[in-house]
Amino acid sequence: MNAPLPDRRADWFPPERPYAATGAGRPKDRPNIVFVFADDLGWGDLGCYGSLHHHTPVLDRLAADGVRLRHGYAASPTCSPTRIALYTGRFPGRLAAGLQEPLVQRDEHSGIPHAHPTLPSLLKDAGYDTAMFGKWHCGWLPWFSPVKAGFDVFFGNLDGALDYFSHIDSKGQPDLYEGETPVEQTGYYTEIVSARAAEYIRARDPGEPFYLQVNYTAPHWPWEGPGDEAVSAKVTAATRRTQLTGLFHFEGGSLDTYRRMVEALDTGIGQVLDALDEKGLRDNTVVVFASDNGGERFAFLWPFVGEKGDLEEGGVRVPFLVRWPAAIAGGQVTDVPTITMDWTATLLDAAGARPHPDYPLDGVSLLPWLLDGDPPPERDLLWRTRGQGAVRRGRYKLLVDRTAQPLLRWLPAGPGERVRLFDVSSDGREKADLSGEDPALTAELLDAWRTFDKALLPYPPPRRRDDRTNGEAD
Question: Which end of the chain has the lower number of beta carbons within 10 A, N or C?
């Protein structure tokens, strides 16, 4: 009989306690904000979430010094809709660009409209300096860019994927920008983004509040760790021959390469956090870390099923960490369900910024719960993709497979729908279908999802193959 695997956290991770507000209320000074997005990082890819393979001391320490959310969700199982949700604070399906899963069309309709208020534009109006380093993926020039969406400073890439060394995009073209000006820079992209973000913090006047968005492409494909210049040369050549599919790197990668990519990400975030410490900004800076969606290929997703692109837990439940020493005690954990748009509302609330009345937020501020001792918010979390839908209410989650044949003869369902109900607080595998045990709740949640579905923009018809260019697909 095999001996049980040791708990790798036991030597360095202190015991966690259920979340409770300190009772001290809100700090007098407005906080700085640093929001860090990993790209396609799986639920179990950090030590503090049970990784068996990766050494992630920086993010594990961030969890130990703050709050680890065990039921933190991305707004979408694909990257650009989640990013649109964070910047707008609204369901991705309220914007035409959010219907692309992920965003691939390069035209004047595929991005966040300039008139739409965003997290950076609202914080800027409230007196914050705003900056982004890394991946944008919310529209292309000349129509869209981070600068057009409210960021004062931008360095990074516009596309959804980038070679880590040659810095070409899915079309095989250079994709590094300073503001809206193309630039060239040598080096491993994860390290470049980390250095630029840390440099921005070190150059700050400590008396001026700022919002810094740090968007890594790691550990998204292509599968290249530090030192893999030879791999990059092959990927770059293949991408220039076949465009998008070359960057997919179908033939590449390994668990070890993925480990090195995740650990480089962890090291880079350490540089950003060190810069906060050096400037004396640690205590009154809100640091939020999350993945934009679930992992794929080499990610560790146990105990969940599904992955990037799916509305099963593996596609939308993601690592989510929050640290704010001036207001939140460390060493805490919570099972309160939250979603990306909640953090838009929360950060605006913390900064004293108001959302635009014509663009109501779909998230809720968590500050009354986090700081004031109010009960956690109770509401449905909702998702919709072209192929699936989902509702999370309390411990229960309804999955709607929109193209499957119905299995529940006693439940009214639309054409081709299959409906399943799970208790995801105890069944993260989503195997024990409770819809037959509780048809009333199933029907209630299905009705809530259909109402939500009708309130969003309809999906356009799939593009014909002869309409697609350069290997791009919806």
Answer: N
